[in-house]
């Protein structure tokens, strides 16, 4: 179902992925986040939802905007919603017709669900051999197939909570569903790689990514410390296991982060704090020494840092090349992005209220915001008409 097919309302902008059609069976966050990014880049994403309720996140509120949960709105712009009952033969047949004309299929049901519906990869590749079939799971399709793929569960079982929070605490989750987001990014990269392979060979393939494997990959230095040196990292609050000073200090009015990454930056910091001899002290002359004597270092720095406001230190130390900054709330963070010219918001006239812009800038084929997140089933009639089917016969809706 190409985007320029007569009777199929698709993207109008010549985005990098213009002409790519995605059959999106994804729900909640990882899958929908990935397909929204593809849609921003020009793909025609057909979001297939349950009649009556749709994606679970449509009910995940408050807060709500325009009658829709902001959780749903945040990851579903630029898509077309088709309501299909996959337990009804006509609804399932319509879903199969959409898949047969798609370039990409995305699903994050429990392993085995799509196969039971007759929409598994081996089922659909017979009629659409060029299809890129992307499956997102929580713990893979073998031993972990029965485990539910909830972000909090994966943060706990995948080790992230063990290195997040205060020392000796029970472990703390990240403030957003970070594992879902990371998994969506990995899934998107896999889909793009598979599309490039298809461009060269004409062959589709299956793309699989799990929340657990994505998290373990994202643990980077902590995972390398364990695999390479046998270390089992623990939570250190806002401190870094391998760098110092790299943590939060109290300025006179509010907290301030220092992120000193090398010895030169440390020497400049000491000069600006009126502690020039500190950088020559054998306990602090190198990063390894500073990590070993972190407590003494923090005590030496805390006094001078507490004599001025955070904004004053931010201006002076940043100008001197020392990485630092205050802890902003989201309002201040978006204000900062605005001042830096990053345009972090999508114009409300383009995609509805409260949309964060696509983070990638492309000179020739920039992301485009064609439509707001769809109302449930808003595009069912148009998509079914393009397939030569009627809503009553094909949607399977009560």
Automatic annotation (TrEMBL):
Residues 347-376 are annotated as: Disordered. The keyword Transferase applies. Keywords: Transferase. One of its GO terms (molecular function) is transferase activity. This is CaiB/BaiF CoA transferase family protein. Pfam families: CoA_transf_3. The keyword Protein transport does not apply.
């Amino acid at each position: 179902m190409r985007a320029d097919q007569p009777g199929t309302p698709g993207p109008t902008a010549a985005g990098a992925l213009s002409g790519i059609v995605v059959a999106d069976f994804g729900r909640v966050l990882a899958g929908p986040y990935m397909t929204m990014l593809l849609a921003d880049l020009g793909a025609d994403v057909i979001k297939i939802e349950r009649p009556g309720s749709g994606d679970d996140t449509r009910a995940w509120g408050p807060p709500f905007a325009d009658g829709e949960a902001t959780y749903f709105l945040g990851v579903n712009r630029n898509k077309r919603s088709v309501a299909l009952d996959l337990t009804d033969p006509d609804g399932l047949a319509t879903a199969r017709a959409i898949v047969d004309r798609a370039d990409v299929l995305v699903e994050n049901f429990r392993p085995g669900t799509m196969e039971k519906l007759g929409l598994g990869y081996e089922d659909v590749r017979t009629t659409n051999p060029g299809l890129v079939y992307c499956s997102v799971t929580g713990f893979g399709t073998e031993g972990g197939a029965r485990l539910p793929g909830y972000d909090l569960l994966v943060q706990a079982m995948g080790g992230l909570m063990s290195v997040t929070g205060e020392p000796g605490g029970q472990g703390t989750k990240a403030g957003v569903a970070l594992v879902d987001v990371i998994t969506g990014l990995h899934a998107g990269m896999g889909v793009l790689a598979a599309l490039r392979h298809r461009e060269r060979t004409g062959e589709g393939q299956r793309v699989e990514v799990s929340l657990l494997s994505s998290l373990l990959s994202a643990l980077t230095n902590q995972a390398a410390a364990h695999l390479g040196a046998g270390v089992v990292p623990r939570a250190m609050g806002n401190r870094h296991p391998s760098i110092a000073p790299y943590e939060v200090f109290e300025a006179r009015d509010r907290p301030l982060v220092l992120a000193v990454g090398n010895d030169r930056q440390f020497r400049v910091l000491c000069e600006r704090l009126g502690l020039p001899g500190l950088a020559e002290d054998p306990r602090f002359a190198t990063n390894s020494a500073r990590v070993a004597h972190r407590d003494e270092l923090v005590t030496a720095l805390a006094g001078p840092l507490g004599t001025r406001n955070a904004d004053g230190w931010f201006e002076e130390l940043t100008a001197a090349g020392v990485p630092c900054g205050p802890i902003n709330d989201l309002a201040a963070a978006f204000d900062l992005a605005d001042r830096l010219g990053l345009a972090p918001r999508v114009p409300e006239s383009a995609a509805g209220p409260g949309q964060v812009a696509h983070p990638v800038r492309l000179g020739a084929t920039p992301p485009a915001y064609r439509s707001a997140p769809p109302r449930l089933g808003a595009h069912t009639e148009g998509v079914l008409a393009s397939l030569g089917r009627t809503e009553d016969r094909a949607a399977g809706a009560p």
